[in-house]
Amino acid sequence: MGTVSPTGKDPIARRVGLSPVERISGPTLWGRVLLAGVAVLVIAPVPCGGVGLYEDIGRFSFFLRSARYRTIDGRTAFTEGTTSEAAVFAIGIQHPAHSAFLIGAHVSFATNRLGDSLTTGSGDLRLSSKGELWAGNDRSLYLLAGLRFGIGDLKVFPYASSSFDFELGLAYVDTLSSVTWWATAGGVVVAQVDSDLKENGLYGNYALTGGGVVFSLRRRLDLQVGAMAYGFREGGERLIYFSDLDFKYSQFLAANVLLQVEGGNEAVRAYDYAIVFGVRASY
């Protein structure tokens, strides 16, 4: 087992004055085994169909970089596509589990307009977790795992999937003075998917890579820029560019605005762009 260091600090915790948490400074045996498993998953070919689901990269990035404290957040997204537009409302929580783990969950509700047709429905329930495999001075390597349960209504696809997905990946977070950068790679296996999506090749297994850079403009204001790529073996890839501003009113309350723009082949896009407004409370 690795030794425990009380001096490690999460980058967000350090900026808003939260107390440091214990960090595991060396990879354990189970960490090395899981690391090898992730490498196989990422390197192996991933067969799939075409387009993917709507993703809130701002929430994903905060989950990677955040300290291990309890958080409740609410987010509202407005998306625009070539033939459709939608409003997505989501609520999520995250909670520390032991000194080296963080778990989270969120669920959404969407209103989707396609031409003159307006449909509403619930989104999927998504569970996320990260475990610290290694930690140094203001840097960490995490194992990521997650499940997506298809409780959502298929009529608001791509904001709900009616599928069962398993996610596995790695993330590295490093803080250099007032700049924090992160990178991630992983894969998603769709264990069960609605027959209509499967027959039309709309949703299937995929690999993902991405990263971002966070600049601390002031003590309570951060600017982030980055990109994510979702690779489909038979259907091209999705490219999502993002930028967000995060304002910390206090160490317990913060607000965020995020812009996401999809690039790449228009045929595999979930939307063209999305604007997301969020608030979160930590306790």
Ends apart, CA distance between termini: 30 Å
What is the highest CATH level, the class? Mainly Beta
Total beta strand runs: 14
Task: Report the biggest beta sheet as strand number plus sense, adding barrel if it closes.
Answer: 12 strands, antiparallel, barrel
Order of helices and strands: EHEHHEEEEEEEHEEEEE
Low-confidence stretches: 1-27, 38-49
Helical content class: 10-25%
Helix run count: 4
**Strand order, largest beta sheet:** 3-4-5-6-7-8-9-10-11-12-13-14
**CATH-defined architecture:** Beta Barrel
For the record, the count of structural domains works out to 1
- CATH-assigned fold name: Porin
What would you call the structural class?
A: mainly beta
Shape: globular
